Amino acid sequence: MRYIKNDEAVSPVIGVILMVVITVIIAAILAVFSFGIGGPTKAPEVNLKYIGVANSTGGNLSLTHEGGDALILKDEKITVNFASNGTTALSSSQPMPLDSAGGFQYINGKDTLAAGQKITGPLVAGIKVGEILEVIIVDTPTGQLISKARVVVQ
Asked: Which of 17, 108, 109, 144 is deepest in the core (most CB within 10 A)?
């Protein structure tokens, strides 16, 4: 008895399976581009100007928005430290307006800081002219750095 091997049906079945797989992959790629799934979130891009001024009560740090995206205040965290030793330089008695976690609060009833707007906050008592402050602003939803600057107190 002779055994006859018939492979005629294998090729069309494999071809159909490959076409279905390719169609599913193309549909998945189109869905990602269409719905933005997996796209990286972006922190605001902003140009900020800082001015630190010493006075008899301690001093003030002014932050002026000079252009770029508006900052959603509840999403931003500010840290102000002395560059020499890393200790905090913002006064906690009168926040900048900051909440207890270092995040911005509303300013004059607004929840954003747009171009041309300015906020000022008190620095710790005893700050002197010439001291250098390091100011860091981080976007909390993305964890991305928005601004990092060194400010010389005037």
From this structure: 144
